[in-house]
Amino acid sequence: MRTLSLADAVALIPDGASLMIGGFMAVGTPESVIDELVRQGKRNLTVIANDTAAPGVGIGKLIGARLVKKVIASHIGTNPETQALMIAGEMEVDLVPQGTLIERIRAGGFGLGGILTATGLGTVVEQGKQKVAVDGKDYLVEPALRADFALVNAFLADYLGNLAYALTGRNFNPVIAMAADTVIVAADNIVPVGVIPPDHVVTPAALVDYLITQS
Amino acid sequence: MDAQTVIAKRIALELRDGTLVNLGIGIPTRVASYVPTGIKVYFQSENGLIGTGALPEEGMHHRLLTDAGGKPVAALPGACTFDSAMSFGLIRGGHLDMTVLGGLQVDQTGHLANWMIPGKMVPGMGGAMDLASGAKRVVIAMQHSAKGKSKLVKVCTLPLTSARPIDLLVTELAVIAFPGGQATLLETAPGVSVQQVLDMTEAQLVVPDKVPEMALSAASL
C-alpha cells in the first residue's frame, strides 16, 4: 500500500477507465474522489455502482459533468439526468438486478467466472443470456464483473490500509475492493495500526493499493 | 381511513413473531407503523441493515445510517449491518421470510409488474427482482386501481418483475391470494361488497361462498 494525495491518486486514473464506486444513494461513496475526477475532467468513464445517486450528489456529479460513457447499475430512478442521457442515446446504461450486480462483482473478486441465479428468469433480464438447469431448477448464467479501479470509501483506515466501515456506508465497498486491478481508498478517518481490532477489519490492508492522505 | 392506511394495517397482520421482513418504498414502508403488539419483527433494509427503526429525533440522524431510499433511519437495539452481497444473500438464499412490495400491475395468475413503464419510467429494478424471486413470501401492497383502471389485470402488459407468482395482494378493497395460480378473493374491506370488488377488477376472480370482512387490527380478529 502507498499513500498518495487526492490529486495524485486520481491522476492515476486514465480517460476511458472502468471504475467500481462504492455507495448506495451516495451513502458510502468517496465524495472527495468524485469531486477530483470532475476537477481533473476524466472522460469516457465506465461506472459500475449500485446507482447514480441524484444530480449534484455522489456519482450524479460524474453524470452531470458528462464524464461517463457507460453505467452498469441497478437503479437510476433518483437521477433524471442519467435517465435523460440514456433515453437520448448519449450514455449507455446497463440495468442489472441489485443482487445479481453485487454477486457478479463478488464473483469477479473471488476468482469465479460468473454466477447462477434465478433472479430475472421470465423477465426482460434473461434476454440474450444463457440458461442452465441444475438439479431440475433453472438459472440464468451471469458473468463476473471486474474493473480497472475500485474507488472505496471506508469509515476507518489504519496506517497499513486495513479498513472498517460504518453502518450502511459499507454496502458495495468491501466487495468492489476485491474486484478491481487497482484499489484506491478514501477513508473518513485514518488511525494508528491497532486501533481497528483484527476481528473488526473488513478489508485487509493487502487488498489496498493506495490510501488517500487527509488534506 | 385512506386507502394506503387500510392496506398498511391489513398487511401488518401478516407479520409473524421472530421473522425477517423487507419492506419496499412507498405504502410498504408504512406497514412498520402497525406491527401488532407483542411480536418482534426484524426489518431488513437491503442497503445493509437489519433492525431499522423509525426516524430518529431531529438532529440525531447519522449520514451513514439510511434506508434503501437513502433517507435517514434509526437502528434498533440488536440491529446489525452488512455489505450488499450478504444483504442479497439473505434475500435470495431463503432467509427472508416475507417481502412487501408495491405494484404497478398484478395479473390473475399472480404475476407482478412493478419496475418499469416502457417509454415513460425506466428507473431500474433495484432490488425488486431479487425480492420478488427470492423471498419466502411475497406480499404486494397496491391501490386497486389507477385513474379508474383496475391494476389487478387479466395479463400484465408491463414488463414482469419475476416469473414467480406472488403470494398475497392487499388493496384498499380486498385481500386476494393465488392458490393454484388463480386470483381468489379472500376478504373485502369494511363497507365494500363482493360485487363492488368485482366491478372494480379486470382480472377473473374466484369468489368462495363466504368472503369475510378484512380485519384491520389484531384486536378485531
State the shape of chain A.
globular
- Taken in chain order, the helices and strands of chain B follow as HEHEEEHEEEHEEEEEEEH
Number of helix segments of chain B?
5
The quaternary structure here is heterodimer
Molecular structure report:
The complex is a heterodimer of chains A (215) and B (221). The mean pLDDT of chain A is 97. Chain A is 21% helix and 30% strand. Chain A has 6 helices and 12 strands. With 215 residues, chain A is of the alpha/beta class. In chain A, helix 3 links the parallel strand 3 and strand 4. Chain A has a single domain (2-113, 146-212), classed as Glutaconate Coenzyme A-transferase. By secondary structure, chain B is an alpha/beta fold. Chain B has a single domain, classed as Glutaconate Coenzyme A-transferase (3-Layer(aba) Sandwich). Chain A binds chain B through residues 24-28, 50-51, 53, 73-78, 83, 86-87, 95, 97-100, 102-103, 105-106, 117-125, 155, 165-175, 202, and chain B through 45-49, 62-66, 68-70, 75, 81-85, 87-88, 91-92, 121-130, 133-134, 159-164.
Please write out the topology.
The complex is a heterodimer of chains A (215) and B (221).
Chain A: E1 2-4, H1 6-11, E2 18-21, H2 31-40, E3 45-48, H3 60-64, E4 68-73, H4 80-87, E5 92-95, H5 98-109, E6 114-117, E7 131-134, E8 137-143, E9 147-158, E10 163-164, H6 173-176, E11 180-191, E12 210-212
Parallel strand pairs in A: 1-12, 2-3, 2-9, 3-4, 4-5, 9-11, 11-12
Antiparallel strand pairs in A: 6-8, 7-8, 9-10
Chain B: H1 3-12, E1 20-23, H2 27-30, E2 42-45, E3 49-53, E4 74-81, H3 84-92, E5 98-102, E6 105-107, E7 112-113, H4 128-134, E8 138-141, E9 145-146, E10 149-150, E11 152-153, E12 168-170, E13 174-177, E14 184-188, H5 194-199
Parallel strand pairs in B: 1-2, 1-5, 5-8, 6-11, 8-12
Antiparallel strand pairs in B: 2-3, 3-4, 6-7, 9-10, 12-13, 13-14
